[in-house]
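Thread: Newbie trying to understand structure tokens

Hi all, I'm a second-year student working on a class project, and my supervisor (Dr. K.) asked me to get a predicted structure for one chain before our next meeting. I've only ever worked with sequences, so writing a 3D structure as a token string is new to me. If someone could post the tokens and maybe explain what I'm looking at, I'd be very grateful. Here's the chain:
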Amino acid sequence: MVSLDDIRKADQALHGRVLRTPLVHSASFSKQLGGEVFLKLENLQKTGSFKLRGAAYKIQRNLSRIGPRGVVAASAGNHAQGVALAAREAGIPATIVMPEWASITKQESTRAYGGQVLLKGQGIAECIDEALALAETGMTFIHPYDDPETIAGQGTIALEIFNKLPDPDLILVPIGGGGLIGGIAAAAKALRPETRVIGVQAAACPSAYRSREMGQVVKVEAEKTIADGIAVKQPGELTFQIIQEKVDEILLVEEEEIGYAVLTLLEREKILAEGAGAVPVGALINPSTAIPKGSKVVLVISGGNVDMPLLNRILKKGLLRNGRMMKFAVNLEDTPGSLAELLTLIAKLQANVLKIDHRRNEEDLPIYVSRVELELETRGWEHLNEVAEGLRKSGYVIELKHG
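---
Reply by user tm_fold:
Sure, no problem. This is what the structure looks like when written as tokens:
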């Protein structure tokens, strides 16, 4: 088990090696909750994720025992970058085993931090097996979550939270393998037992949630999720023990809620978070999450390493979900001025054209008809419905698109 003393030792060892990230008050979320909401911004950490803390402490703690071949780790992204940077700053080599599907952005970021990337297999379990095999050749294995020193490093986040906010009622923390929530819960419950620590997990990969239900570590089948950083099919043995003893509850969030959370953080707070880092916001804005009015709530925004193509899809989907974007198709007579008339009407309805695709000569269209597909910026569902009704009243037969 990891103690408060262990976490304090980690905090001393990490002084000057990691950033003490901000704890900022959110006026918009506080108003929505009817309490006080604070954001712990680990997306601003070096490498863009909390993972640097555990990796750096593990390496510093064992530096005298690490051989000339350095360290090896298995990760799809954030742990990879954390280990690579921590190893470079310690002056030792690092080999990172990543799944073959790992994003090119995260592969290149890991290399940029000094790590040697080895692509192997389709899952993290295969990567860990390969990393353990390499450890037999003289490398030191840095586990992504199920290690007491890694957990202690992650737990330093809680010390920073309590240093700024001594009496939080609730801390919402993402859960993947359990290292982050394990460290935070171990520190929080020692500092203030009445503070509730709640884990948040993607419903697409509910390994900690199911394990808690079953009372033992279980492996789940994972679906595709935009919270790929916490898509871990089973929690660690040590982390699960801490979760059972010190975590008050685990919540699940759906993909739409995660996407909306990413959009909301970016739009309201000007904070870029990856899907895994945004899940606490997804839980907060879910009406079924019971948080007493007047509570002091901390949301741990664990990382901000999101691929730009994925971010574009998340934002577009979120805008469609909120009625902030309208997509539709309409057939027009293929005569001069017909498209101009449509665009003039859209302007009168105070919608903004984002994209237009004008097609002729399609097989299913009469020869004097063209098909126009448009994306419009709208103010919300009320305005979107006003635009649709205005188009219909003017004689246009529109086909609304929802994706």
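A couple of things are worth pointing out once you decode it. Residues 51-141 form a domain with the Rossmann fold fold (CATH 3.40.50.1100). The first strand starts at residue 23 and ends at 26. Feel free to ask follow-ups in this thread.
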